[in-house]
Amino acid sequence: MKRLFKGGRVVDPANGIDGVHDVLIDGDRIAAIGRDLPVDGAAVVEIPHGLVVCPGFIDMHVHLREPGQEHKETVASGAAAAVAGGFTAVACMPNTIPVNDDANVTTYILAKAAEAGLARVYPIGAVSRGSKGALLADIAELKQAGCVAITDDGHPVATALLLRRAMEYAGMFGMPVIEHCEDPSLRGDGVAHEGYHAAMLGLRGMPGACEALGVERGILLSELTGSAFHVAHMSARASLRAVRKGKEAGIRVTCEVAPHHFTLTDESLASPIPYDTNMKMNPPLREAADRDAMLAGIADGSVDAIATDHAPHHYDEKKVEFDRAPFGIVGLETAVPLSLDRLVHAGLIRLPRLVELLSVNPARILGVRGGSLSPGAPADVTIVAPDLHVRIEASRLRSRSRNTPFDGWQLQGGVAATIVGGRPVFINSDAGLAV
Ligand code: DOR
Ligand code: ZN
Asked: What does the DSSP 8-state code read for residue 176?
């Protein structure tokens, strides 16, 4: 089937395109992009004024919880949340039960994703068996089964030697090592950012230096091995400083920032709801200077990607004392409104840069298809409605979990439609698009 998107603003930074164009989709591929393309038997979709056609967004850091914790999320419910949030693809972390450290688990996740038929799902394998930090996982096997990167996310890789070996092997297969940067000895049993608010609330703290030490270690080992190193969920200004220096030195380091780290600070630990466990994640919400550094890095190009660290947890698990609650919040369905509102409408970046952060760079870092609307590319398209007024409602999320700190937030900007392999898999009835 052919579909012609007519007359919308198209933002495709990989091809230097930002203007009114038509986009022709033939089956599961982009067939052509240009002005006044002939209809030629295609179903015509008029793009209402104000909507923007972009290459599909890719969230390179999500936790899908299947196998093992299906009460929090399944591959299918996570994929539904992804497409409702404007993501045509997600990369899922290996901290499932069992851990994705062998081909069986990878194959299982891919089968569940195919069954769901919504977003593309790219599994990320473990660095070490069981992510326990003792023995390297079989990285060749993971790659062959379909993993696009390796990480022990949830924890840092246990030793520098293991991280070095992981980089050497992953490098041979062209995969990046994604690191949850944290020095365990400095973190201790911290549950929140070390600072004024944690102190006032009597919460044990972990400083930004704890993350930055992990970033510095990874950058040094990336220099040593020549392999690609990606910093997950960066939150601390000292980490950004290290990444900038690494990039300047020509080291293959990239980084992502999660929306909660560019919108919230540790002040949210105290108000409006003190000890709100939906403000608990790792790395933690940091102080304003860190949040502002993340915004500056997003604006000046030092930050490569926006990734959600979508970490669903069940209500009962979160409804406990702050100390005892698991780390993490859901993010798939709030990332695009938060980014449009706080980055684009705030005047910090323009739409093409946002598309780089959400599509071009994640595709490049993971080495997956997507990130452009080039003819011949998979027809993965996100249509955004930058001026749509959106109210985040936890009770209406597609995710199986509701642990968001953004419940009730009113934001400017939303998703109009999500198209995967030429198939519309999400249409927002509020955005005035008839696909
Ligand atoms: O907040 C987090 N939640 N940080 C992590 O590193 C792990 C994640 C999870 O799996 O819940
Ligand atoms: Zn992590």
From this structure: P
Residue type for 108, please? Y
Q: Do 2-52+379-431 and 55-366 share a fold? A: no
Of the bound ligands, which one is closest to the alpha carbon of residue 313? Answer: 1
Distance 129 CA to ligand 2 centre (A): 17
Q: Give the CATH architecture of domain 55-366.
A: Alpha-Beta Barrel (3.20)
38 C-beta neighbours (distance < 10 Å), count:
10
Lookup: tokens for 108: 């299982």
**Element (H or E) spanning 221, and its range?**
helix 208-225
Atom 2 of ligand 1 has which residue's CA nearest to it?
A: 328
What is the three-class DSSP state of 361? helix
327 Cβ below 6 A of ligand 1: yes
| In contact, 56 and 88? CB cutoff 8 Å | yes
176 vs 251: CA distance, rounded Å: 13
**Amino acid at the residue 180:** H
Residue that has been written with the tokens 């439609």 in this structure: 417
Tokens of 260: 């909660």
Cβ contacts of 407 within 8 Å, gap of 6 or more: 278, 392, 393, 394
* Ordered DSSP codes for 53-117: EEEPEEEEEE---TTT-TTT--HHHHHHHHHHTTEEEEEE-S-SSS-S-SHHHHHHHHHHHHHHT
Q: Which pLDDT value is given to residue 363?
A: 98
Q: What is d(CA 143, CA 36) in angstroms, rounded to the nearest whole number?
A: 43
180 lines ligand 1 (CB under 6 A): yes
The per-residue pLDDT for 434 is: 86
Confidence of residue 50 (pLDDT cuts 50, 70, 90): very high
pTM (2 decimals)?
A: 0.98
Instruction: Tell me the catalytic residues.
Output: 309
Spatial distance between the Cα atoms of 244 and 261, rounded to a whole number of angstroms: 18
- What is residue 435's predicted lDDT score, i.e. its pLDDT? 82
Contact assessment for residue 385 and residue 426, using Cβ atoms and an 8 Å cutoff: no
Provide the CATH number for the domain formed by 2-52+379-431 in this structure: 2.30.40.10
**Domain segments of the chain as ranges:** 2-52+379-431, 55-366
Checking if the pLDDT of 305 tops 90, the result is yes
Which residue CA neighbors atom 7 of ligand 1 most closely? 154
Please answer whether residues 418 and 424 qualify as being in contact, where contact means their C-beta atoms are separated by less than 8 angstroms. yes
Tokens encoding 157: 């890789």
Query: What are 66-116's pLDDT values in tens digits?
Result: 999 999 999 999 999 999 999 999 999 999 999 999 999 999 999 999 999
